[in-house]
Amino acid sequence: MNKKIKILLINGPNLNLLGTREPKIYGKKTLPQLVQKIKKIAKNLNVKIYDFQSNAEHRIVEKIHESKTLKIKFILINPGAFAHTSLSIRDALLAVGLPFFEIHISNIFSREEFRSHSWISDIANGIISGFGTDGYIWALNSAVSYVLKKQNFKKKSNSNS
Known about the structure:
Layout: E1 5-11, H1 23-26, H2 31-44, E2 47-53, H3 57-69, E3 74-78, H4 87-96, E4 100-104, E5 126-129, H5 134-159
Parallel strand pairs: 1-2, 1-3, 3-4, 4-5
Helix pairs in contact: 3-4
């Protein structure tokens, strides 16, 4: 049996209020419902999801640091408003050097002007913005594909040595 791929799912500030916070923008699905759906899909993909949500920037930074110890292969992060303000989250992502996707439920580029700039977009492997909570599923599937391609490339490289 293949080892499970470990993916860290981070949700930033106010995402704990999904389902009640501005449902016209963020939908009616709660964060526990979303995480449960992601974990169910992940299980079928042979993926272990470590999920984490915090409204505190330093706790998110610490969880990103911990990703190396957990042997995480990919990070999925919805930084919420921290996308527009946090250099420390950017620096933490750079420091661990793991591939990651930035996820936003709403289209940050069609909202207030200040939301159109993210401090982590330029270092992300990809950005999924504006597709509601379906964006998380697309990010998960794309992350698994990325990791598997990387693993297969390493296997081929090692067998050619």
